[in-house]
Specification:
The chain is built from 20 helices and 17 strands. It is α/β, with parallel strands linked by helices and about 500 residues long. Helix 10 (about 265-275) runs parallel beside helix 20 and helix 18 packs across helix 19 (about 470-490).
């Protein structure tokens, strides 16, 4: 499944119509029918619901008119209000003419009286269906459209948006002056980027994707570069293991980090890696925290390195020896931001023997090693949260949050690294410009140590031989599902990072 822009969706529509000969009316018919199928799946007593539909002049309005017809055929009491500040689109006009031949109540929103009638009707409606604007909005909502949206937002009925809530920028998730606050959004054909970005998550409610008859071959021709991470990403993690395999068959991960007061970060990273199927884990930690990590992760081999207040420059030589024979490295959790941190990460990157994940404190010393990261012969994966991403780029955190896809893509391409931008709907960006977004997550993940857990999962998958694309996407999906599982069994409030680790086996066995 792809995450598309409005223009990409328009291109897909055009190619389907022009190259395959599927008429626009057929796509509109499928769209309206899909909306009603969603309503039937969601409301078992649909025929007892009073439904109000607002349709605009464009094809989004045409979809709404088709939905009205199918609801009428089901015996659902439906009233349709049409707002048109221009002539109806040809397909919308045709569906209006069809609907006008049926005993469905339709009203034009062209006067104060009609607006008052809408207000009264919505007061007594169970469901409000928004077919006003869709992806066609390109300016601030104002005038009567603003009034229509306000009327719906102020009522307690269930609000269902067709494709995109009216007033939402379908590319950026920004609000165009005023926006319908939907309980559900029925995304047609593919989810839109605005559903998952900025205020889109708040205003779209639950997003449900429905097919409308556009074949996959059309999307392949468009070379779409942003995909939704889904359960298919877990296939490499669930392949049956050979019964004659041994611990060396599943890779050896080196985790470098920890310091006095932050030894728990290494503990979480190592535990998460072990739960994610890696055969061996070695932890390179300062001497002062060796015992703490060894006691809390008895399955790991814990190697003490010389330290000052944290790591010291004297740790670099023994680190070189520890890098031998490793299949992946995770560096940074709990490491501190002293001079030795940057020097050690630079040494790891020069090693060029295996993939490297750089997380947490390691990212905050990027000025010492970022150039080497782009020149490394092996994959380098950076895993910043928005604040760390802001420091990496020199931009404001608010800018990063408002431009997550673009910021991740630009950085990964420019620096030639893999980037995992954490947060709600974690993004994976490839050096060649490809993007992946995880839409499975939970507030249960918003806890200290959650990022250390994710770094450990990525490192474990890399150590087992997975390619960076597969390792990053599978890891963020496992992480998201684990957070969801924790929310279900413990709750979003009481969760902690170790609960996420405990949920990993459930996800990988499921």
């Amino acid at each position: 499944m792809y995450l598309v822009t409005a223009e990409q969706m328009r291109q897909a529509d055009r190619m389907t119509i022009q190259e395959l000969g599927i008429p626009e009316m057929v796509l509109m018919e499928n769209a309206g029918k899909a909306v009603v199928e969603f309503l039937q799946e969601t409301f078992t007593d649909l025929t007892e619901k009073a439904i109000t539909i607002v349709a605009g002049a464009g094809n989004n309005g045409g979809d709404a008119l088709v939905a009205a017809r199918y609801l009428h055929l089901l015996g659902v009491p439906v009233k349709v209000f049409i707002y048109a500040d221009r002539e109806l689109s040809p397909s919308a006009k045709q569906n209006y003419e069809i609907l006008s031949r049926l005993p469905v109540k339709m009203y034009w929103l062209d006067s104060e009286n009609s607006m008052h009638l809408l207000k009264v009707t919505v007061n007594y409606s169970d469901i409000f269906i928004d077919g006003l604007l869709g992806t066609g909005v390109n300016r601030d909502v104002s005038g009567q459209m603003e009034q229509i949206i306000d009327i719906a937002n102020r009522r307690s009925c269930v609000k269902v948006a067709i494709d995109v809530p009216s007033g939402l920028n379908s590319d950026t998730g920004e609000i165009w002056g005023r926006c319908l606050k939907a309980d559900y959004t029925v995304a047609l054909a593919q989810p839109k980027r605005g559903h998952m970005l900025n205020k889109g998550m708040k205003y779209c409610g639950q997003v449900v994707v429905k097919e409308i008859g556009i074949p996959n071959e059309i999307y392949e021709k468009l070379n779409l570069n942003c995909q939704i991470i889904d359960e298919n990403c877990l296939k490499p993690c669930k392949e049956p293991r050979n019964r004659s395999s041994h611990k060396g068959s599943f890779g050896h991960l080196l985790a470098v980090g920890g310091s006095m007061g932050m030894s728990g970060a290494m503990t979480l990273t190592a535990q998460a890696a072990l739960r994610s199927g890696v055969g061996l884990v070695s932890c390179a930690v300062p001497e002062s925290v060796q015992l703490h990590v060894a006691v809390n992760v008895p399955e790991a081999m814990v190697q003490p390195l010389p330290e000052g207040s944290r790591f010291s420059m004297a740790a670099i030589e023994p680190l070189q020896e520890l890098l031998r024979g490793k299949k992946a490295v995770v560096a940074g959790p709990g490491m501190g931001t002293g001079e030795a941190t940057g020097a050690m990460i630079r040494e790891i990157l020069k090693n060029d023997r295996c993939p490297v994940v750089i997380d947490a404190d390691g990212l905050n010393t990027a000025e010492q090693w970022l150039e080497e990261a782009g020149q490394a012969q092996m994959p380098v994966i950076l895993t910043p949260h928005p604040g760390e991403m802001a420091r990496l780029t020199g931009m404001e955190t608010s800018y990063i949050q408002n431009n997550r896809l673009a910021a991740a893509q630009e950085f990964a391409q420019k620096k030639q690294v893999w980037l995992v931008l954490k947060g709600a709907n974690t993004i994976v960006a490839a050096p060649d410009g490809r993007l992946y977004m995880n839409v499975i997550d939970s507030p249960a993940l918003a806890v200290a140590g959650s990022g250390d857990v994710l770094a450990g999962i990525i490192g474990a998958f890399l150590a087992q031989g997975m390619q960076p694309e597969d390792a990053c996407c599978a890891a963020v999906y496992v992480h998201g599902l684990a957070g969801k599982h924790v929310a279900e069994i413990i709750g979003e409030v009481s969760s902690k990072a170790s609960d996420i680790i405990s949920s990993i086996p459930t996800i990988l066995m499921g």
